[in-house]
Design a protein that fits this description.
Blueprint: E1 9-12, E2 15-18, E3 22-23, H1 29-42, E4 46-48, H2 56-66, E5 74-79, H3 86-100, E6 105-110, H4 119-131, E7 135-141, H5 145-154, E8 159-165, H6 173-182, E9 185-189, H7 201-210, H8 214-223, E10 228-229, H9 236-243, H10 252-259
Parallel strand pairs: 3-4, 4-5, 5-6, 6-7, 7-8, 8-9, 9-10
Antiparallel strand pairs: 1-2
C-alpha cells in the first residue's frame, strides 16, 4: 500500500477541511481501528465519526496507532438529536472527547435536525461548547436550505458546514447552492452511493477514458466542485482507490454528463429523526 500525499483542503469560516476524509459509519472494533490507522498512514488527514456510530473509542485508537501528529488530522464527530437540550448537549460533547481520548475535536456537528428541541437553545449550547474549547469549529448535518437559514439567524457563531447525502444519483443542486450562498462547506456522506457508483455504465465509461474506476470518477465529480467527500470502507485495499482522485481532471463534458444522472428520487438515506423532513 503506497503512501499518498495529503490532499487539498477547502476553507470555510476559518476551518480548513481536507477534501478527502474517511467515513466510519458501521465500522466496529478492531476493523474500525485498523482502517483508521491505515488510512492515516496512507495519507488521509480527515476522519469522520459520530455518537450514533458507537466507534469513537476505536477511531481514537486508530489515530494514536497511526503515529500521525494530532494537529495534522481533522477529526469530526456528531451529537445525536436526543441530546440537544443545552446541559445534555454539553455533557454529550464531553463524552465524545472522553471516548476519542482527545482534548478537542476539529468539528462538532448536530447530526440531524430535531424539531422538538428549540434550535436557538441548541445552537447556543453548541456555541458554548466551542467557547469552552471542546471543539474548534461547529456545524450541522442533514439540514435543509430552510433550516440552514433559520440556524444562521439563530446564532452569531459561525457554522462551517452542512453534511448531507450527496452523490451523482441524487440532485442536491438546491442545497449545494444554499450552502455556497451562505458560505458553508458541503460535506458529502455516502458519496459513492453506498457502492452503487461502481455499477454505473456512465461512470465506468468515463473512468476508462481516464484510466480510473467508476468509483474514482464519482468521487472526482464531487471534489472537483469543492465538495468534501467522506467515503466509508471496511477494506484497507479500497482506501488507496478512494484516495487516488487528485491526479486527473474531468472535462466539462464529463461533468455535465455525470450531473445528468441526478434525480430527486436518488436518495438512499431518508431517516428523519423526528417527523417528516421536507427535503430540498
Amino acid at each position: 500500500m503506497s503512501e499518498i500525499k495529503p490532499g487539498p483542503v477547502i476553507e470555510a469560516k476559518g476551518a480548513r477541511i481536507p477534501l478527502l476524509g474517511l467515513g466510519t459509519w458501521n465500522l466496529r472494533g478492531r476493523v474500525c481501528a485498523r482502517v483508521v490507522e491505515q488510512a492515516l498512514r496512507l495519507g488521509y488527514r480527515h476522519i469522520d465519526t459520530a455518537q450514533l456510530y458507537e466507534n469513537e473509542r476505536e477511531v481514537g485508537e486508530g489515530l494514536r496507532a497511526s503515529g500521525i501528529k494530532r494537529d495534522a488530522v481533522f477529526v469530526t464527530t456528531k451529537i445525536w438529536p436526543s441530546h440537544f437540550a443545552p446541559r445534555e448537549l454539553e455533557r454529550s460533547a464531553r463524552e465524545r472527547l472522553a471516548q476519542l481520548r482527545l482534548s478537542e475535536v476539529d468539528l462538532l456537528l448536530l447530526h440531524w435536525p430535531n424539531p422538538q428541541a428549540p434550535l436557538a437553545e441548541t445552537l447556543g449550547a453548541l456555541a458554548k461548547v466551542k467557547h469552552d474549547g471542546l471543539t474548534r469549529h461547529i456545524g450541522v448535518s442533514n439540514f435543509t436550505a430552510a433550516l440552514l437559514e433559520e440556524a444562521l439567524q439563530a446564532t452569531d457563531e459561525p457554522l462551517v458546514c452542512d453534511q448531507f447525502e450527496c452523490h451523482p444519483f441524487l440532485d442536491q443542486s438546491k442545497l449545494i447552492a444554499a450552502c455556497r450562498k451562505l458560505g458553508l462547506a458541503v460535506v458529502a456522506y455516502s458519496p459513492i452511493a453506498q457502492g452503487e457508483a461502481r455499477k454505473s455504465d456512465v461512470l465506468k465509461r468515463i473512468g476508462a477514458a481516464h484510466g480510473k474506476t467508476a468509483t474514482q470518477v464519482c468521487l472526482r465529480f464531487l471534489v472537483q466542485q469543492d465538495i468534501v467527500v467522506i467515503p466509508r470502507t471496511s477494506k484497507v485495499e479500497r482506501l488507496s482507490e478512494n484516495a487516488a482522485i487528485f491526479d486527473f481532471t474531468l472535462s466539462d463534458d464529463d461533468m455535465r454528463e455525470i450531473a445528468k444522472l441526478g434525480s430527486r428520487d436518488g436518495r438512499i438515506v431518508d431517516w428523519a429523526y423526528s417527523g417528516r423532513m421536507k427535503w430540498d
